[in-house]
Please model this.
Amino acid sequence: MKATLSENPLREGLRLQRVAEPCAVVIFGASGDLTKRKLVPALYSLAQQNLLGEGFSIVGAARTPMAHDTFRAAMRNAVNQFYEGGPVDPTLWENFAAGLFYLPMDYKNQENYHMLAGLLAQIDRERGTCGNRLFYLSTPPSLYTDIIQMLGATGLNRSNPGSWVRIIIEKPIGYDLESARALNREVLKVFTEDQVYRIDHYLGKETVQNIMVLRFANGIFEPLWNRRYIDHIQITAAETIGVENRGGYYEQAGALRDMIQNHMLQLLALVAMEPPISLKANDVRDEKTKVLRAVRPIPTDPEHLIQEVNKVAVRGQYGEGSVGGQRVKGYRQEENVNPESNTETYAAVKFLIDNWRWAEVPFYVRAGKRLPKRVTEIAIQFRQVPHLLFKNTAEGPLEPNTLILRIQPDEGISLKFEAKLPGQAIHIRPVNMDFQYGTSFGKKSPEAYERLLLDAMLGDSTLFARGDMVEVSWQLVMPILKAWQQTTPQFPNYEAGTWGPKEADELIQKDGRRWRRL
Amino acid sequence: MEIERDLRELWKQMAEAAQAEGQQMVLRVCVLNLLVYAPGQRSTGEISKIMAEVTTEHPSRGIVMLPKPEAPSSVVHAWVTAQCHVSVGGRKQVCCEQIVVTAEGEGIFQLPSIVRSLLVSDLPVVLWWRDIPALGNRLFKELVETSDRVIIDSARLPDPEEGLIELAAFIQREFPWAAFSDLNWSRLTPWRVAVAGLFDAPDRLSCLNRLNLVEIQCDSSSMDSVSSQALLIIGWLASRLKWHPVSRPRWTERHIYQMELAAPNRTILIRVKTSPAINPGRADLRSLKLIAESDPPAQFVVIGRDGSSHHSYLQTYIEFGGTPIAGKITCLNKESETRLLSQELEILGHDTVYEQVLEFLAELLNPRI
Ligand SMILES: NC(=O)c1ccc[n+]([C@@H]2O[C@H](COP(=O)([O-])OP(=O)(O)OC[C@H]3O[C@@H](n4cnc5c(N)ncnc54)[C@H](OP(=O)(O)O)[C@@H]3O)[C@@H](O)[C@H]2O)c1
Model:
């Protein structure tokens, strides 16, 4: 189906090997925020780096009536504003914009899809995009099913021999297990799984990809990567921002859906999975799915559900407070938020993985908004030394070794170990051996959306979530969602600018551990 | 050794200075040894600037050799400096160490042994020979022996035809294990990407088997020489597409350099039109046209276009069966030596495509055919 690039003898040995084939990207919801902030700047950046195929084209589609030229002008402004590489180069832009088209459409009107097909055929003829198409669903999720069905009904889901059709679906994939399953079912009625690319932009981050390199390209970590040496793992995604202008969306989501069900469980899977047999997309995704399947489910017996959930999960919502020296409102006072909202802006969950490698090693996962610091990290805490030789000399308990994989900001890896202070007496202090990508390599990592869009054009789905993986993740959080629905929380229960509700501390303290001070 | 002691002292001072200012520890990362051989320098300024930029992307120990072979004495002198720069995000400093060794007269022959004693253990060694590739030169050979990768610039060859034959022989016979790269070959990378891109679509891919005419325009630094860029691009097309030399290239008119190559089913005429260089000392490619005359006729064109002082553009263009198809414009950064060097350091293995190009050119330019 693909492979023309590898058949081209002139491509051999070229350093820019990851170059996309000629194709057209169709963005549904092109008048929206994501298109202007992320998608078009990322595509322009790829064009600027010469990573797109000849005749590359974009068709923007949305309800807003707009002429091609208006769309082009809007996208030029967007790129000027959001593309990190500065304002556009006029000559390059002119060439890029010649491939930009806009089609006003009502997503539910079949006639509009025939018009889209006509436009795409014309682009194939005039710009040589060879029938290759990448659809991008960037509308509100409630429209996904309509669009997918219409693509099927009008045959836009099918490709000619030698060309390809793929579809990228933005998060959220479903609202709960049932809706995720329903969406997957609808998608798979029209597309085959290998045509479907479910975006989890966390996986596009360079440091997330580096977890695989750290684990499987180094011989020293993997032997320690198990229950014999690891005491527990903490995964944190802390944001300082509130819900910004996305209150409406967040009200329906909450921290568990917005962060834990997708991004955090993906990180957990990357840290906990077994070595895949190859780096092929499905080999990697098989292992990730397998480890998620091994996560111990919360017993769902209705009588004890709330009790069981309370043992392993905590939710919180911020009230007013100060972040970074600035007073900020509470969640319930934010725009488009119900003043009596019970949506959680913080969630902490303890997961256990029932397999040989991880039996009884807890994974503590927390995510929240309006926390004191923006930081996403995975901390692997090793067990204490078996015999405390230094108990009479050290001033307090020795700190266990911790390996920290920092995802953002200051991506890097650090290892904490004990060292002796110089002098006659034995004073032991923890020191950090710190490796930071940013300070070690001056080169900038590509933006997540650039990487993911290019991968989708290249047909590499390694960094995208597979349908079964999404469903397993929903399955894991469903009991928590259910229990939380059945009870009314005492919100707000943490002040903006603090590390979440005290129940979260208790969650980990009752196991004799504590959250890392970040 | 004194230099090693100076290095330790340097790091200590930097760490102390950083701590005094309440900054994080100075970070020291090193991924390779970069040897630079740069004669004819009046000061270290230019090289230091290049090294500062290159080490941002490739933290390395730089060993800069500044030979003055004409000097009457044979004094060798070495000192250390640190290259610090603020990282992306603008907060922390990354520092790399640089050792400068000046050698006068006969002293230059001590350079290889000095360099060997200064290498960081167990890291790749890259030699950047910033001079005419002097293949018979003893010093060059000794330094190549110490290195895993050697970077030269064939644009510096006074006689490209002669020079490339020698280079091919040198690599094949004397140092088959060393990975050679050529900055002039790297200058062609955007051209190669552009040409390759023209054939990505399946219906155009098949045209590769029908091409029968290649027209190249390029600058030339002197009247009767063809630029090494033109030769390299011919070598690339021929070695990738399995075309074989039929006869030696010849000048058919004053500015036309021509040759015929053979493919299993046809002959391919290659015609290079040279014009005086716009930038003195630079002999750059200007355009490349690949033509299939049999039915349906097709043309694949890449043209360099002027832009600002920082970059120019490459424009591609296809005509297929008489219909033009939209082409693409890409930025062709006026690649500084620094950028090119930095790109070269990304790869450590052999560039087999380049080696095959040289092999082809050695055959094509061989006076015996
Ligand atoms: N923005 C982000 O940073 C971000 C991050 C992660 C994921 N996402 C996801 O990406 C998708 C797009 O995000 P976005 O921020 O671009 O969304 P958006 O701006 O709210 O909406 C995208 C477009 O959808 C159309 N639309 C909105 N409501 C509609 C309705 N009721 N019926 C029909 N069309 C409607 C609008 O275009 P017209 O009115 O012209 O039709 C709008 O321009 C969403 O699924 C979101 O969850 C966004």
Observations:
- The longest helix of chain B spans residues 2-20.
- The mean pLDDT of chain B is 84.
- Chain B touches chain A through 54 residues (CB under 8 Å).
